[in-house]
Amino acid sequence: MLRNTVNGLYGSRGSTIMISVVVIILFGAFAFVLNKMKVDTSDIFNNTVMYQRADNAAYSVLEIATYQLYPLNAHSADAPSTAIDDTQGGCDRVTKTYSEGNIVPGAKGLEQCSAEVKCERRAVVIDNDDEYSTYTKVVHYFLTVDAKCEAGDSDSDTYYVATKRVYSELVDGD
């Protein structure tokens, strides 16, 4: 009888301690998982924001380059004296590098972005009519914009970089 009382007394105390340890371990694991999910969600959000900034920077610079290539009231990107061959023509006005904060001055969100525009010109002469030797000059402009946005501390885990490349082909014909 004494044995049952002692066993009952210490047995319930031992199982209570074991249950408490298991519950503490489960809650600790649950808290760890929730914290990890929070960090992962934060990284996903930051990466998404940085990608969107790079996307906006690339398309903004592409629009600026297109406008510089074809200014208002200009029917052609080339000057009238531009050769029919593959000289640069209008590309001279477009090819450039935009440093951080210089893409669209004062634009929020693009301060930490930079971009580079490359322009390539290809001219083709097409013989319209062999009998009268009339020719048409068709010029293709290929624009490539590489944008890059960076944020955070490069010496820590909170450094984000996003890049975006966009292309455009513009055709100019006489």
Describe the structure.
- This protein has helices spanning 2-69, 91-94, and strands at residues 96-98, 113-129, 134-152, 159-173.
- With 174 residues, the chain is an alpha+beta fold.
- The protein is elongated.
- It is 41% helix and 31% strand.
- It has one domain (2-173).
Considering the chains and any ligands shown, give keywords for the structure.
174 residues, alpha+beta, four-stranded antiparallel beta sheet, 2 helices, 4 strands, 41% helix
Oligomer: single chain
CA-based shape:
elongated
Q: Determine the fraction of residues in helical runs and give it as a percent range.
A: 40-55%
The helix count comes to 2
Beta-strand level of the residues, as a percent range? 25-35%
Uncertain stretches of 5 or more adjacent residues: none
Sheet with the most strands, sense and barrel status: 4 strands, antiparallel
Total strand count, please?
Answer: 4
Radius of gyration: 33 Å
Q: State the strand order across the main sheet.
A: 1-2-3-4
Structural class: alpha+beta
Lay out the secondary structure:
Elements: H1 2-69, H2 91-94, E1 96-98, E2 113-129, E3 134-152, E4 159-173
Tell me briefly what this model is.
By secondary structure, the chain is of the alpha+beta class.
